[in-house]
Amino acid sequence: MTDSSARADTPGEPDDDVRQADQAHRGVPRAEGPQGTPAETEPGAGEFGERLSESAASRMRTHDDGSLDVMASIGGVRGLVEASVPAAAFLTVFVITEDLLSSSLVAVALGVLFTIARLMQRGPLVQSLSGLAVIVLCAFVAQQTGEARDFYLWGFLTNAAYIAGFALSIAVRWPFLGILFGFIRGEGVTWRQDDERRRRYALATWIVTGVLALRLMVQLPLYLSDAVVALGTARLVMGLPLYALALWIAWMITRPSAVPAPRTGGAVT
């Protein structure tokens, strides 16, 4: 991922020389047009790609060797805790007290504490508030229906939406992880000119889609049978860690082939 300090005059877009150097370091083939000139980015992709690149760069991290730093990309231990603890607290309090209101209040209170801590450290406002908004929404839905299982209902809806979106992106030959990883790696959308790389990005997108579908297959029957404890446990086990694993596998199988080093030394015999 290109360092944010190496920028061209246009905000959010790396300098061409920096981009090319980063591609060479990571083994990304430079797409070329006729007579060896750089290929043009496909019409309409530039603005969308720039915005997606900026968003992805703020969330995902890579090692110096180009591999994905999974823990850093999900926010490290802190990100894992903030994503898991409110839901775990809701489940724990509900098991002990069987009181929906108390369980919801504890979950929301933890979300508020995490959000305040991030804001005090001047974290991004949207990122800081988005997690709290989801917790509040889940608690609100559960309170409206009076069913503890409905604390997890929003997760089903978002999973289904992501599955539909990812599948559609593959169907129209714009696999989502190709867009995401392509801009992080400095490829832009030039990978679409390479059938093999497009197939790999489609496979990577299917892998993440499969994890989301697996969640529904396991958790939806638990929801329908009102097995709240089993449902809450499954949500924790199949949450961020499993998604991070799928993301890492997707990153690894889409790594560009290394550019062979030029030969040096004596004459070829």
Automatic annotation (TrEMBL):
It comes from Nesterenkonia xinjiangensis. This is Intracellular septation protein A. Pfam families: DUF3159. The lineage of its organism: Bacteria, Bacillati, Actinomycetota, Actinomycetes, Micrococcales. It comes from the Bacteria. Residues 1-63 are annotated as: Disordered. The keyword Transmembrane applies. The chain crosses the membrane at residues 100-117, 124-142, 162-183, 203-224, 236-254. Keywords: Membrane, Transmembrane, Transmembrane helix.
